[in-house]
Amino acid sequence: MKNLVLVGFMGSGKTEAGKLAAARLKMTFVDMDEVIERRHGQTISMIFEAKGETFFRLQERALVRELADRQDRVIATGGGVVLNPNNLRDFSRTGIVICCWVDAKMAHERTKNTKHRPLLGDQTDRLMRIETLLAERQHLYKAIPNRIDTSVMGVEQQTDEILRIYKQQAGL
Ligand code: S3P
Fold it and tell me: What strands, in cross-sheet order, belong to the sheet with 95-101?
């Protein structure tokens, strides 16, 4: 089976919906950040702090190449995977890429009580930080043809939508 690759900004529900979709498709779920953390024995925040974002992006890139060579996986990517166009190109070779769009307000709502995202910093001015980052990246998310707006749905409906697109495109 083709991979199902979930892309989208922080707080777009990729991990939660990805886990549900994987269970329903009986496919293996992979969270890219979790794999990177496990392999380095450090959290994403620690990696950003000790080695910098560039180092993290290289690990992310290497993992995309590895995962794109396999099949039968539901993959939740990190929000910045779209920054390198080669990532989406590779994923598209062996998988169906779906963008989970989220607007800034909802991304803030869903991430405001979390502390594990280095790019969002501490609580101060987080909404502004999200608005800025999303404005910088929105053209990359919006260029993905398979796109659902998760700002207006709960995780169950999001999973249904993801599965509908995946099954239609995988010919299931
Ligand atoms: C990032 C998103 C994070 C994680 C890292 C960078 C980004 O993943 O990969 O903090 O650049 O948007 P989530 O989208 O799962 O929060």
Answer: 28-31, 73-76, 3-7, 95-101, 147-149
Compute the CA torsion angle 57, 83, 14, 74 (nearest 10 deg). Answer: -70
- Domain contains 127: yes
Residue 170 lies in a domain: no
d(CA 147, CA 40): 32
Ligand 1, atom 10, lies closest to the CA of 117
The CATH number linked to 58 is 3.40.50.300
Please report the atom of ligand 1 found closest to the CA of residue 31: 15
Which 3 state secondary structure label does DSSP give 52? coil
Give the closest residue (by CA) to ligand 1 atom 2.
79
Closest C-alpha residue for ligand 1 atom 15: 78
Q: How many domains does the chain have?
A: 1
Print the domain residue range for 69.
3-165
pLDDT in tens, 63-110: 999 999 999 999 999 999 999 999 999 999 999 999 999 999 999 999
- Substitution candidate for ligand 1 out of 31, 33, 77, 130 with most atoms within 8 A of CB: 33
Give per-residue pLDDT as tens, 2-58. 999 999 999 999 999 999 999 999 999 999 999 999 999 999 999 999 999 999 999
Q: Label residue 123 by pLDDT band (50, 70, 90).
A: confident
| In-domain check, residue 33 | yes
